[in-house]
Structures are given as structure tokens and as C-alpha cells.
Amino acid sequence: MAINLQKGQRENINAPKFTIGLGWDANSSSTGGQFDLDASIFGLNENKKLVEDKFFVFFNNLQTPDKSITHTGDNLTGDGDGDDEQIKIDLTGIDSRVKEIIVVVTIHEADSRSQNFGQVRNSFIRIFNTDTKEEILKYELDEDFSIETAVEFGRIYERNGEWKFEAVGNGQREGLQKYLDLYN
User: Fold this and answer.
1) Where is the TerD domain (predicted)?
2) Could you give the C-alpha distances from 24 to 53, 117, 167, 170, in angstroms and in order?
């Protein structure tokens, strides 16, 4: 049975291979434009910096060089129920320099489309065992991000040989570029 997390809560993952599922629904857009939300992953070292550029996984770089982090592809609309985007993680083959994995969702072209996370509802991140499909944990973002264009949904980090998930739920207005600046 999955654990439903609250913001700030941490939980052991206890699965060497797992999938991160991310979901959301856009409110009917008053801007008239389609919403395109994008999941991105930052594989960070002990100094909280990208191990190298190829450890930034997103719709134009779907896999790390060691193949331990794989984005399954960009969903341009978010239509339908369930996960809108998924990232598969294999901790058995992850580069030993990776100590933290940051999960971020951004709105593509948010400024030009006058869109923000206040127009998005039912946002969640969940982690399930890739082999058994058993859901391990889920975090539903229930805050109103009325001006934010990017949200850090959660982070996965290694402590004393164990991998844990922290429900973060922090938004900001500067989009993906702020995270790129922060982690490079």
C-alpha cells in the first residue's frame, strides 16, 4: 500500500528500480493556448551541482550516459488520467557521483502563453516499483501556485547507503532557467 506524503515528509524508497510518475490537469485555459508541462531531472553530485551536462534529463536528452535515468518521452498535452510523464530510475547502475536527483516540472513557454501553475490542478508525483508496478509513495501538490512557472515536485537523495524521497513542492517564477543556473 502506497504512502501518501505531505510537503516536507521523507520516506525510504526501498526499490533498486523504480519509476517516477508525474501527473497534472490544466484548467480550461483563458489564454487560449495548450498547456505543455515538462518533467526534468537533475542528477547532482555531493556539491549539489550537475554531475555533468548529460545528467540533466528532459525531453531533448532522454537518458543519462550510464542509462540509469531514462525519461520515457514528452507528453505535449497532459490529456487523460494517470501519469502524464514518467522517468525510470535504476539505482543498481547509477553513476556513483550521483547523490541527489531533483524532479522539476515546468510550463513550456509559460511567459509567452501567460500561463502559470495556478491554472494547473491535480498535480502529483508518485514512485512505483518498476518490476512489480506496486506504488511505493505518492505526493499530491495541493498548493495554489498562482504565479509560479516551475515547481520542484520532489528530490531523491542518498543517505547512509539508502535512497529516500522528500516531498518538496516549492515553486518559483523564473522557469527552468533558474534551475539550470542553480545546478550548473
Assistant:
1) 1-181
2) 27, 10, 16, 16
Q: Grid coordinates representing 26?
A: 490544466
Do the beta carbons of residue 167 and residue 142 sit within 8 Å? no
Quote the pLDDT of residue 42.
Answer: 98
85 neighbors 123 (Cβ within 8 angstroms) = no
Strands (E), 27-129: 37-44, 56-57, 69-71, 85-90, 100-107, 120-129
Q: What is the pLDDT of residue 45?
A: 97
The distance of Cα 140 from the centroid of its chain, to the nearest Å, equals 12
Between CA 71 and CA 74 the distance in angstroms is: 8
- Amino acid 138: pLDDT: 94
C-alpha cell at 111: 511567459
The span from the CA of 157 to the CA of 60, in Å, is: 24
Q: Please list the ranges in the chain whose pLDDT falls under 50.
A: none
22-56 b/e (C-beta count within 10 Å ≥ 16 → b): bbbebeeeeeeeebbbbbbbbbbbeeeebbeeebb
In which region does residue 11 sit, left (phi positive, over 0), alpha (psi from -120 to 50) or beta (all else)? beta
Specify whether the CB–CB gap between 70 and 140 falls below 8 A. Answer: no
